[in-house]
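User: I'm writing a short report section on ligand binding and want a predicted complex to refer to. Could you take this sequence and F0G and write out the structure as tokens? A short remark afterwards would be nice.
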Amino acid sequence: MFPTYRGKLEYVCLGCGKRYGIDELLYTCPSCGKVLLLEDVNRGQLKELGSGEYWRGVFDQRAATRETALRGIFRYYELLAPVMDPQDIVYLGEGHTPVVEGAKALQEHLGAHFMYKNDGQNPSASFKDRGMACAFSYLRYLVRSQGWKEILGICASTGDTSAAAAMYGAYVGDPIKTAVLLPQGKVTPQQLSQPLGNGAMVMEIPGVFDDCMKVVEYLAEHYRVALLNSKNSWRILGQESYACEVAQWFGWEVEKLCLFVPVGNAGNISAIMSGFLKMHELGIIKGLPRLFGVQSSHADPVWRYYSAPQEKRVYEPVAVRPSVAQAAMIGNPVSFPRVKTLAERYESVRPGAFQVVQVEEQAIMDATIQANRHGHIACTQGGECLAGLLAAREKGLVARDDLAILDSTAHSLKFSGFQDLYFRDAFPEAYEIKADHALANRPVAMLSEKEKASMPAEAFTHAVADAVAERLALHRL
Ligand code: F0G
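Assistant: Sure. The structure tokens for the complex follow:
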């Protein structure tokens, strides 16, 4: 049965505090220009409807639903965007990604206790689908309620947002069209193939993500377009589902967990904090987990801010340098004000529970390769989380037995080019990465085309089999 509760959502400006209704598309405050968050002013009613135990029961029961609209992120409908009707909700199989125990040998080797949450197992192979499912459901609601004949969804991207936007756009179809703006040469070929395959208009510009972001921000201010970056608060709501899933998977007991999350534009870490805070407010969870943002030293504005003593903190954008955590290679995160606001709230519930660690490129790449050699499917941002855990262990922030949940935000296959560079030890200097040759792996050519042409088919099969047997030192029966 579809939920009957309906919230009253309002945009709240994090700068001046002004509030706005949701019948128009807003990305920044029309009054002061700062970023917004969406708030359900009816949420007090959720407390009256039931206790934390009641809501835990509701969400646990919904785990078995066959109602399409509730199978994905909207299992947590009342916590996310309880304004949509089931007909608006787009479901492409997002959410409920597996939590996989770290391979035993790797945990022992690293002296760390961890599990990966494989968000790369979302439909477009990254966590962005969580937010995009929500943003597109809201767009459908707007199109329906306002009778729009045409709307263009647009985003800047380091690769994954554009893949998700194009996929949802293609699925929903008219009257929504999608266009994406990418930094030329700074998106992997696999990521680039996604919006192309989904038929989006793909435009490339010289520069980095931050340059693309400025262009789409300008467009969103001066033209009628739907901005699909996480500056769009609906994206944040959808991504809160990650926190809900972690809590539910661990039986709603999260206080002992340490979550590691890569930080780029800072939408994801904002969403995760917000999700946990909501569950805590409703008594669904009793306490908050510890949360660690992770940034590469080549793109670390958030780490720089939090590494200074409280009274000396100043936010400054940085010029990024090439990073294998390319999807998070962002020097001026749009959601930084959200991080600041939400981290204050988070810390007011559990002091010291929000931290940011910095890691080197070498450590990110070594961790990615190590994880995948042990059967994981970590993208380079997932490797960044493992490197972050090791850095936190070294600093004594995390104990040997603390359980870390590492967010592998995308699928390893999207970033296989970096693996290839590592195996060939061919990273351009700016990455500052040298390969550990013991970890290199390359295909071995067994027989040549010429040799194949020189013998009958059966003889070729036997010759190859003998060569394989010799290579693997197999014993003949
Ligand atoms: N991991 C992956 C795989 C990403 O694609 C991104 C961001 C991040 C981590 C960082 O998350 O921005 O919420 O802090 N990718 C965006 C994009 C910027 O355009 O795909 P964040």
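A remark for your report: The pocket of F0G is lined by residues 126, 128, 157-161, 230, 262-269, 327-328, 379, 381, 409-410 (CB under 6 Å). The chain has a mean pLDDT of 97.
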